[in-house]
Amino acid sequence: MVKNIDAVYEELLRLKGEGVDRIFINSDTAELLSKLSNSKSSNEAKNSAESKSSKLLKSNTDSSTTKGKKELAGTDKEVITTLFPKPTSINLPKGDKNSQMNWLHEKIESCSTCNAQVGNNEKIVFGSGNVDADIFFCCDAPNEEEASAGIPFTGSSGDLMLKVVNAMGISKNSIYTTHIVKWRSKDHKTSVSRTPNSEEIGFCAPYLQAQIAIVMPKVIIALGKIAVAGLTNRLPANIVMKDLRGKWECVENIPTIFTYHPTYLLHNNTLRVKREMWEDMLAVMQKLSLPISEKQRDYFLSK
Fold this sequence. Notes:
By secondary structure, the protein is of the alpha/beta class. The protein has two domains: 2-46, no CATH class; 97-297, Uracil-DNA glycosylase-like domain (Uracil-DNA Glycosylase, subunit E). The protein has helices spanning 2-17, 27-83, 97-109, 112-117, 144-149, 156-167, 198-215, 225-232, 241-244, 262-267, 271-287, 294-297; strands spanning 128-129, 135-139, 175-179, 219-223, 248-251, 254-259. A six-stranded mixed β-sheet has the order 1-3-2-4-6-5, with helices on both faces. Strand 5 and strand 6 (254-259) form a beta hairpin. The protein starts with a helix and ends in a 6-residue tail after the last helix.
């Protein structure tokens, strides 16, 4: 039960960071939370009974506990260092865009650190699309469907983004899509997807920078808080998407707009949220001098 609760907690934190303020839960999750509540009440009574004996042992265990914590901290640090060595800059070879992207793809596929994070029946999700694209979509990390296929924009969230692209009047073959982190970030105990951490984001940063350098798009679209964090070196905890969305900044000297993650729209399927994201896409179209019809201007406006 604890593992499942951890997974629910991680997902709630991710949704909160995306600006979600209410969700619907199914009966299984409701039952799980109810069990946790009952378990908490039982544990509180147990802890009260054990507190006196714990105090008697405290003076004899303080020094050894402190030492144990130091050793544990040292062990954790070594594990992180082993899994995520310091990211190094990437020097692209000479050649055309396709040969450079193929070289980079092979480099990531042969990366031992990246491969160590990939689960069974999963793949590294490098990115895909047109290397001459004007629009560069950047998301957080692959979901289960994307990790299984090895292709971005797969699954329900990917289907939604392709609908957005089509509504903009552009082809999916004219864009480039990738993620900040190139593998599915997950809880190693439960295998449930989780928000990428700072070590993962930092390690993958040179790969993302190289992809941007190859494509050299006219506009980057950052989908969600982790994409914003990875592109701008912000701390994810300090990002509130409902305050940042629609804002423009320069990343690698390229105009970059921040907008919602497609999963946020799936969980907040309201006219207001749809319109907010669509206004961001209209801003992109205007930046690129793409034609905008009256019908497109009026999408998701209340009648």
